[in-house]
Specification:
This protein has about 100 residues and is mostly helical. It is built from 5 helices and no strands.
Length: about 100
């Protein structure tokens, strides 16, 4: 297998520059950022446990696929905490949220 040409590498780099990957939690994250990250993590867990595609999960939650895609990539800064909790309640309607301070 030959190494890609400069043209091919440039095209790939341009595409990757515009891509939004999964956002990591900063080591100095605020408590609010940690809470939002954990809420997003619950969506990822639910999706994997139920073998759902993003489109299927979006339908369950009642939002656009683009919105659920952002949640699954931990882009929680795009939403209020209220909205994230409201969406989470759609997949876990019989559960309650408890706060644990540690």
């Amino acid at each position: 297998m030959a190494f890609p040409s400069k043209k091919k590498l440039a095209a790939v780099r341009m595409k990757l520059e515009k891509a939004e990957g999964t956002q990591l939690l900063s080591p100095d994250a605020t408590p609010l950022e940690k809470l939002r990250y954990e809420i997003c993590r619950q969506f990822v867990i639910y999706q994997r446990e139920h073998g759902l595609k993003s489109k299927e999960l979006a339908k369950i939650v009642g939002v656009d696929e683009s919105i659920i895609s952002k949640v699954l990539r931990y882009r929680s800064d795009r939403f209020t905490t209220d909205k994230l909790i409201e969406m989470l309640a759609k997949i876990y309607p019989k559960h309650h949220i408890a706060l644990k301070v540690s």
